[in-house]
Amino acid sequence: MTAFISAHWLDITTTLLGLLYILFEYRASVWLWFVGFLMQALGIVLYYQKGLYADCGMEFYYLSMTVYGYWKWVHGTAEKKELPITRFPRRLIIPWLAIILAIWGIIYWLLITFTNSNVPAADSFTTALSIVGIWALAHKYLEQWFIWIAVDVVTCILYFYKDIPFKGGLYALYVVIAIFGYKKWKRMIDNRPI
């Protein structure tokens, strides 16, 4: 048992932080950004060790987005008030889809050209989609939950394949929580005074 825990301590720790993170996200609590920062820092080491190089690189982006997200949520309006939950602007859908496809292609090419990754398509897909997902979360867009559902399904499968079982299970749970999170945030928008 000690050898198992020793071999999977980063997986276990980042999983526990991930549970706390998603709880704060579900509640639309600013604390998600603090927990996220610690989780991302440890994730850099975990993903590098497991050969998930795109995920590893993504953690650096996430670190910067935790700082940006915190600032945006706390001081994100012109009146310096807490940012409200809103809908993803329709005018951004096509540009962001193009950005996702471009990033996916670039990361895929980098992985097959410069690494020994045996999962370049899935690793680059979840990374590209996550770039938009964390940006949408930082802006408190309701539809960020749909992005995370797609990321979480693919990531769950990928992590079980790469022998990161705790995080794989966490991402399976994330799918369920994301569905409920969407419903909760939608109620929060629908019940907000105009």
UniProtKB/TrEMBL annotation:
Primary site of residence: membrane
GO CC term, one of those recorded: plasma membrane
GO molecular function terms listed in the Swiss-Prot or TrEMBL record: nicotinamide riboside transmembrane transporter activity
Lipid bilayer topology: Multi-pass membrane protein
Subcellular location: Cell membrane
InterPro entries: NMN_transpt_PnuC
Pfam families: NMN_transporter (PF04973)
Tagged with keyword Transmembrane: yes
Keywords of this entry: Cell membrane, Membrane, Transmembrane, Transmembrane helix, Transport
Membrane-spanning residues: 7-24, 30-48, 92-112, 118-138, 168-185
Function of the molecule: Required for nicotinamide riboside transport across the inner membrane.
PANTHER family found in the cross-reference section: NICOTINAMIDE RIBOSIDE TRANSPORTER PNUC (PTHR36122)
Family named by the database record: Belongs to the nicotinamide ribonucleoside (NR) uptake permease (TC 4.B.1) family.
Protein name: Nicotinamide riboside transporter PnuC
